[in-house]
Amino acid sequence: MKRVWNWLNESLEEFLMAASLILMTVIMGIQVFSRYVLGASLSWSEEVTRYLFVWAGFISVSYCTKKCISIKIEQFVAVFPRKGKAIFKLVNHTMELLFFFYLIPFAFRYMLSAYVSGQVSPACGIPMYYVQAAPFVSFLLVSFRIIQRWWIEFQTVRGKRGE
Questions:
Q1: Is residue 163 assigned to a domain?
Q2: End-to-end CA distance of the chain
Q3: Per-residue pLDDT tens over the stretch 90-126
């Protein structure tokens, strides 16, 4: 069980983004082959690829959070000592967390509205709440990753991580 948890913690976003990219590539390759070699276009390929792209985009937010890849003022933060940097990052992570906690209910309502309406995609008949769940799932995962980053910085401020 611990191996599974470690794998999920270390590789979940990378796996989902890579799987989405591979699926998008295969689906569009089949579409190109069908269109130009067989002379028959697939009606569903572009729609599925678009939805995979949406999911990959939202999952990438969590990946960037986990890897601390974001727009930030590195030169400003670099002038602080180690604990000062950690305090600055704690404040930054707290603001990010508050922002995503604010967004989660809106994302849930957005997904719920598609569920209630029964809307389906035009070509595949996929329930749209599957697609519109991407922001909700992403914001939950991002919040979890921010809490992880916050805890690491908190340990640094307390002196529990290497000075």
A1: no
A2: 32
A3: 888 899 999 999 999 999 999 999 999 999 999 899 9
